[in-house]
Amino acid sequence: FPNSVFRSNEMRQFVGNIVHERGHAFAAEAAEVFRSAGYQTKLEVELTSLGASKKDGLGDVDVLSWDTNLGRVYAAECKRLRTAATIREVVQRLEEFKGSREEKDALFRHTRRIEWLKGHLPALSKLSGIPVDKIKLCPLLITSEAVPMQFFQALQVPTNQVVSFGDLAKLVAK
C-alpha cells in the first residue's frame, strides 16, 4: 500500500522501516551480482562522500560498480516493486516513474544523481582508479520484476537502462 493509506505516524514509520529494510536487502542482492561478475562494488554511496553538497539533497547511489580494465562504471538505482497486475497498476507505476521535476519522483531523483556524476567524473576516477577520460558511466534502474518502464518509449531515460533483476547478470557479464 502507498504510505498515504495509513493515518498514524507510527504506522507510516513502521511501514517505511520495512520498505527501507527490504530495499536495502534488494540493493545488496544486486551488488552481489556485480561482484560475482568481477566488478568492484560499493553499496549505498552517498554523493556527499564524492564531493556533492549536502544542501543539494542528492542522497545516495544504491549500487556503484566498476571495472578498471573496461572503464565501465555502473551507477544503479534499485527498486523493489510489486508486479503491476492490472491496467490501473501499470498506469500508476508509469506515473511514479515519469522523471517529473515538479513531483521529484523516484526517476527524477535518479537522473539528478546521474547528471551530478557526469559533471564530476574526477570524483568517480578517484574512487574507482579509472582515468577520467576512460570512464564509461552506465546508469541503470534495476527493478525486482519486469515493469512497464522497460517497454515505455516515452520514459525520461532510455529503456535499455531499465533492467529487471533476473536480467542483470546477463547485462553485466564481461
Task: Compile the SSE list and pairings.
Elements: H1 9-36, E1 40-46, E2 60-67, E3 72-79, H2 87-96, H3 106-118, H4 121-128, E4 136-143, E5 162-164, H5 165-172
Parallel strand pairs: 3-4, 4-5
Antiparallel strand pairs: 1-2, 2-3
Description:
The chain is α/β, with parallel strands linked by helices. The chain contains 5 helices and 5 strands. It has a 5-stranded mixed β-sheet, sandwiched between helices. Strand 2 and strand 3 form a beta hairpin. It is globular. The model has no long low-confidence stretch (mean pLDDT 83).
Order of helices and strands: HEEEHHHEEH
Largest sheet: 5 strands, mixed
The poorly predicted ranges are none
Based on helices, strands and strand pairing, what is the structural class?
Answer: alpha/beta
Radius of gyration: 16 Å
Beta-strand level of the residues, as a percent range?
15-25%
Per DSSP, the total helix count is: 5
Helix content: 25-40%
Strand tally, please?
5
Q: Strand order within the widest sheet?
A: 1-2-3-4-5
Distance between the termini: 39 Å
Summarize it.
The chain has helices at 9-36, 87-96, 106-118, 121-128, 165-172, and strands at 40-46, 60-67, 72-79, 136-143, 162-164.
Features:
5 helices; alpha/beta; globular; single chain; 5 strands
